[in-house]
Amino acid sequence: MADLDGNDDILSRVLAGETRAIARLMSRVEGRPADVAPIMAEIHKNAGRAHVIGLTGVPGSGKSTLVHAMAKAIRARGKTVGIVAVDPSSPYSGGAILGDRVRMSDLSTDEGVFIRSLATRGALGGLARAALDTVDVLDAAGFDVVLIETVGVGQDEVDIAEAAQTVLVVSAPGLGDGIQAIKAGVLEIADVHVVSKCDKEESSRTVADLKAMLHLGSTVRNRYGWEVPVLRTSAETNLGIDELVDTLEKHRTHLTESGEGAIRKRRILETRILKTAEDLLRQRIGEGDALTSAVESTLDGKTSPRQAAEELLKTV
Amino acid sequence: MADLDGNDDILSRVLAGETRAIARLMSRVEGRPADVAPIMAEIHKNAGRAHVIGLTGVPGSGKSTLVHAMAKAIRARGKTVGIVAVDPSSPYSGGAILGDRVRMSDLSTDEGVFIRSLATRGALGGLARAALDTVDVLDAAGFDVVLIETVGVGQDEVDIAEAAQTVLVVSAPGLGDGIQAIKAGVLEIADVHVVSKCDKEESSRTVADLKAMLHLGSTVRNRYGWEVPVLRTSAETNLGIDELVDTLEKHRTHLTESGEGAIRKRRILETRILKTAEDLLRQRIGEGDALTSAVESTLDGKTSPRQAAEELLKTV
After folding, report:
1. What does pTM read for this prediction?
2. Does the beta-carbon distance from A299 to B156 stay under 8 Å?
3. Across the beta sheet with A166-171, what order do the strands follow?
4. Cβ–Cβ below 8 Å for A291 and B270
5. CATH number for the domain running over B47-258
6. ipTM, two decimals
């Protein structure tokens, strides 16, 4: 697979865990996935060893600070950590907000930690596909744990968090008494609930609310013999962080022993293929002028939006 | 177009603004759009008169309460209002959270107001397509103003809010000093900024922050000669609600006079056709067993996820 771009070289360097090669491949797969399709096929074959953890919660729930504390605790156990942060940034400016990332700076000199931020890429999408490809790169590069952090609101964002072996939902005290978590539609996707900022007094209320809700609903809980825990943490005082990392390891073992792991592997792959197909569709539509013609003929009253969409599907 | 389902009848009844027919068509277009495609084509031809307003903001920003106050103010001017609320509910339970809607109850007896909640429909999507079709139904049924309310986080949700003639972004005091709005990636899509809960003291800070940010960034502001205002409101004390409704009317006039309205009409149609094409793709993939085969051959190592997605696109 050697070619003019030195793709052969980049693949072996990524598999060897070389930081610069990883970053380069990520940029390429984010922006021009078609160009690196053969490399990504090899990457996929070499992935599957990492423990992929999805972490989600509403804005202000303290996700990034928690990810930071978790990464430190995982590193202290001698394991390496890849972090994929999906930033809902402006669809116009295309830039990610740096605030949260800055706090990660004391991890940035650690070779055993790799942090990648992905920005929302506007109406033409592709975020989910890019995020899942990025996870594959980190997995194949040999990172023991890969954390995907997304905002827990929005269909695509929840889909990304769910495309993980272990799903962690973060709630913060005082953000509307736990209602935030329900509103975000992510309460039931959690394998592990974390209440952040538990150095604050109101946190007991949030923990109690979450536990009550878990007893009310039972769609997911126990479906595979796993009792969803509600853990109290504080990234500030390091409260509960080690227990959280223990729980994540226990969950991984449980996935293997219960057979749920194999079910999830299929589900994750399904999401991945579906998101890639959508991404391909959008790219192909974006390349030609079929969409412009479709808009024109709808404006003229010649077709309905649905007919125009059907025609568009035929052309790609 | 008369058929066994009495479709001919439902179309004329919707166009006449009959509540029950409107609700029935909405349910049908939400769940089984293919069945009502010819009716929706006619609906589309009859739409285009309403002022469609997208309203968005993070959870807890007071969107629903504001929508309620706005609807009352618009009704007081003798105009009718359709409301489409996109609820990010659990992808598992499929149910919408009723909390916010309950507050609307004193509007529910008013024939000049129609409220429709749409729930997130899980990984197979279709939310954006369904929301935009619902707007078309309300428009064709003769509602003067149609408000689409979405959570301002998530690509699909932001896309929906943006598929409107006037985009309103709501920020609340105390939700992290305005950072919430940036995080949500919607600051720059606003034609009108609203700070809610301005009976609270901290609101001055939020207003100042927003104004400062508008002066920093200028991607959208003034692009079509419109100075994006930051309005103070309180649904509690009715502060600023009438001014807000005035501003929305002014914006609509400005759209017409500046030519921006025609540009947006194209953009909205583009989003609509694209979302419908994606929805069609997902439906077709969901109907057959092509996705299952794609997952199997990827698990076997015969194809990469991307190759599997390409194969999948060919089969639909």
Report:
1. 0.76
2. no
3. A113-119, A81-87, A145-151, A51-57, A166-171, A192-195, A230-232
4. yes
5. 3.40.50.300
6. 0.82
